[in-house]
Give the backbone structure.
Amino acid sequence: MDYFHYHDGHLHAEDIDIREIVKAWGTPCYVYSRATLERHWRAFDSALSGRRHLVCYAVKANSNLSVLHILGRLGSGFDIVSGGELERVLLAGGDPGKVVFSGVGKTADEMRIALEQGIRCFNVESYGELELLNKIAAQSGRQAPVSIRVNPDVDAGTHPYISTGLKENKFGIDIETAFDVYRDAADMPYINITGIDCHIGSQLTDSSPLSASLERLLLLVSRLEQNGISIHHIDIGGGLGIPYRPGDRMPSPEEYMHPLLELLGESSYEIIIEPGRAIAGNAGILLTNILYLKETETRNFAIVDSAMNDLLRPALYTAWHDIIPVQQSSGESAKIYDVVGPVCETGDFIGKERRLAIKPGETLAVRSAGAYGFTMSSNYNSRPRPAEILVDGNRIHEIRRRESFDEMLRLEQPIPSLD
Ligand code: LLP
């Protein structure tokens, strides 16, 4: 459930009429709802109540400092995948003691900084990474808290680009060899084994693949325990999907967690989860203005002022985002449109074959854009990145200014003399 709704035919975010935002900030523009973010985070937290647990929001989904600050204040931990994300969490006032660090390519510098900050755990994804971490920890005079990210070889049944738990994926350590890696890790003087981790993919529509993974993980955990290697926490990653289409039905965090908690039974392991999309996705929309309507022999195009550089998901995964008018009744007759951006690529579309009653100058809202929207944006075609606005009840906060041309070009320098 989110807090974007129509009131008297006009789209609102919480108590704010979206037209107010369009008037003041223009388009393209991301708008987030604080109440929705908080509601979603709390749903995960309460799904795990009664057990020791930590909800580590996956920063990559939406890493705006204000979003991190809001979640940090609720007590959230954070799942990071880079030094840059750690920097953001710290700047937003997040607790480094609640940070888990995932990712297959951590550098020595990133390890050093994360160790200095005292993060909760490194989710180690290869043997080479484990050896380097042991070395860097020795140099820093600290023990590195580690869980091995296990690749359980389970098909998450999602888009191949966001499926991560199969043998052929680059993620984690094959469950067959993970036992030996744990044994070696236990002998490394600067490695402190604290947990086990897996993340099998994103936009999962039910928990059965995750249950299958957890079953495998639990077998490994008991084998480890029998061999004197004890585990404090089990991190089951993120991945719960969100409804993108009207009528899509997704499990609630509680429904999603239920079979997993059954599997865990009376065991006392702390549970860590790393949801990103399910917290931020439906807490954000992208506003875009219609520039032109162009009718060709075979298609009607609605050419809008946002593009694949602002929201990459449709172009990259042929992802479907609902597109709705900000003003409900335009008086136009409805037609089927491909909603496309100004970028010079045929793959630059926001939505295809959408029934809309629209005219140029009107504003559309692209729904479910709060996760992997702004964070995947770029300057492709030299387009400055959009503004980000956060609505909190009847208040509007600009949480990131629209990028200016100067800012976009700031890091480039002319060659002094070119002959
Ligand atoms: N933990 C790890 C280790 C991850 O790699 C991810 C996402 C998450 C947690 C959070 O997953 P979530 O709860 O958001 O599903 N750009 C793609 C999604 C990529 C997900 C990458 N990893 C998209 O727009 O669909």
